[in-house]
Amino acid sequence: MPRIVIAGASGFIGRALVHRLRQKHEVIALSRFLPAQPTEKNLEWRQCDLFSLRETENALAGGEIGIYLVHSMLPSATLSQSSFYDLDLLVAENFARTAEKLNFKQIIYLGGILPQTGNLSQHLQSRLEVEQALFAHTTPVTVLRAAMIMGATGSSFQIMLRLVERLPMLVCPQWTATKNQPIHKQDVIESIVYCLNRTETFGKIFDVAGPDIISYRQMMQQTANALGRRRWFFSVPLFSPKLSRLWVQIFTGAPSALISPLIESLRHPMVATPQQQLEIPGHPFRSFSAALSEAVAERGSSRTSTPYAFRKSATRGQGNTVRSVQRFKLPKGKTAEWVALRYLSWLPKFIPFFLNIKVTGNVCTFSIAFVHKPLLILERSPERSDVHRQLFYIRGGILARANAQGNGGRLEFREALNGKFILAAIHDFRPTLPWFIYRFTQALFHAWIMDRFGHYLANWHDDKLKPGA
Question: What gap in Å lies between CA 429 and CA 409, rounded to an integer?
Answer without folding.
Answer: 4
